[in-house]
Specification:
This protein is α/β, with parallel strands linked by helices and about 325 residues long. It has a domain at about 15-195 and about 235-265 and about 300-315: NAD(P)-binding Rossmann-like Domain (Rossmann fold, 3-Layer(aba) Sandwich). Helices cover about 35% and strands about 15% of the residues. It contains ten helices and 13 strands. The strands form four sheets. A seven-stranded parallel sheet has the order 3-2-1-4-5-6-11, sandwiched between helices. α5 links the parallel β5 (about 135-140) and β6 (about 185-190). The longest helix is centred in the middle third of the chain and has 21 residues, at about 110-130. The chain is globular. It binds nicotinamide-adenine-dinucleotide. Nicotinamide-adenine-dinucleotide binds next to α1, α4 and β5.
Length: about 325
């Protein structure tokens, strides 16, 4: 039920059995990893709200039947569903959204409905809740947009480069306004390219690491968009879980805070291919195709703010995370 390579470090001091948690998007990649951590450490209740539009029941199937686990099939675009899902909840991690820059370019209207209107439903229901102590939400490094500055530092954002980036920026604006107007203070975590177990390589909008792992396992050639010098601050999922746990349980805040969640490293796609060759013992060469619209060229985060506010420290650097996830894909099902 629990992956033996993950969550062997405890990121909380309090007894989780006293508390109930709602994870929206909890059947998705990052959400189901947060669920796994909470259940492994005996949380009192873990409720998932997900419409399975992009997540997989497979990600939470093992937890069904646990007395402290509850799955609600529902849509965040419905306000009453959000209110009901929050009943009796102490801590909320809001992960539900439609990710992927290309998807948002193809269908900006649905991305906006889920990511903006859905977010507004969730934060409004959370503000109205009588039991909730903290809401944490998934923000995105895409908010840095066309700013060329490296590392990316909170407060130094550029213009969004895709409809997806606009939706994530609007989340931050609403969270900020809810803090000022209603004194409802939340924490946004700007994820930088998260990867790890439970991220599906077969989804049409799959991210680069699952796709490349799949090619190396199947012995087929991956295609790199661009010259392979594009770089990212790839972040292993256990680091994202650590940040969510610490942000949810942070004792008190009196303002909205948004912060980078990353490793503070920079890896190019060509370097990743070389590492995968070594890990897989498979000497596969990549094809090179055209650059993708809406993508930023380089990304690397400053993690000073999250380190000082949440006492966050990335325990898994890129190479270690890549070894774990490659192993998981090799042994696992969905290929
Ligand atoms: N994975 C990354 O690298 C990354 C980077 C930046 C930000 N994010 C953000 O982190 C969050 C989680 O991302 P992920 O990679 O786990 O994506 P994911 O697609 O695996 O998970 C999102 C989940 O939300 C659910 N969902 C979508 N629309 C819904 C709706 N209308 N109602 C209820 N549930 C709905 C999906 O079914 C899915 O299970 C998202 O908000 C995403 O935008 C992810």
């Amino acid at each position: 039920m629990f992956n033996p390579n993950l969550y062997n470090t405890r990121y909380h001091d309090t007894d989780l059995k006293e508390y109930s948690f709602l994870i929206t998007g909890g059947a998705g990649f990052i959400g189901s990893n947060i669920v796994e951590y909470l259940l492994k450490y005996g949380a009192g209740k873990v409720r998932v709200l997900d419409n399975l539009s992009n997540g997989y029941f497979e990600n939470i199937k093992d937890f069904m039947g646990l007395p402290n686990f509850e799955f609600v099939l529902g849509d965040i675009r419905d306000y009453d569903t959000c209110v009901k899902a929050l009943e009796g909840i102490d801590f909320l991690s809001h992960q539900a959204a439609l990710g992927s820059v290309p998807r948002s370019i193809g269908d900006p209207i649905t991305s906006n409905e889920v990511n903006v209107s859905g977010f507004l439903n969730v934060i409004t229901a959370a503000k109205e809740s009588k039991t909730l102590k903290r809401m944490v939400y998934a923000a995105s490094s895409s908010t840095y947009g066309d700013s060329p500055a490296l590392p990316k530092v909170e407060g130094n954002e550029g213009n969004p480069l895709s409809p997806y980036a606009v939706t994530k920026l609007v989340n931050e604006l609403y969270a900020d306004v809810y803090s000022r107007v209603y004194e409802f203070h939340t924490i946004g975590l700007r994820y930088f390219n998260v990867f790890g177990p439970k991220q599906n390589p077969n989804n049409p909008y799959a991210a680069v690491i699952p796709i490349f792992c799949k090619h190396f396992i199947e012995g087929t050639q991956p295609t790199i968009n661009g010259d392979g010098l594009t770089s990212r601050d790839f972040t292993f999922v256990e680091n994202a879980v650590q940040a969510n746990i610490k942000a949810m349980l942070l004792p008190s805040i009196d303002t909205h805070e948004v912060m980078n969640m990353a490793c503070g490293d920079q890896v190019t796609l060509n370097e990743m291919i070389e590492m995968l060759k070594a890990i897989s013992c498979n000497d596969i060469h990549a094809n090179y195709g055209p650059e993708r619209k809406g993508d930023v060229r380089h990304s690397k985060a400053s993690i000073d703010k999250i380190s000082s506010l949440l006492n966050y420290e990335p325990k898994f650097r890129f190479q270690k995370g890549l070894e774990i996830v490659f192993d998981w894909y090799r042994n696992k099902m969905i290929l």
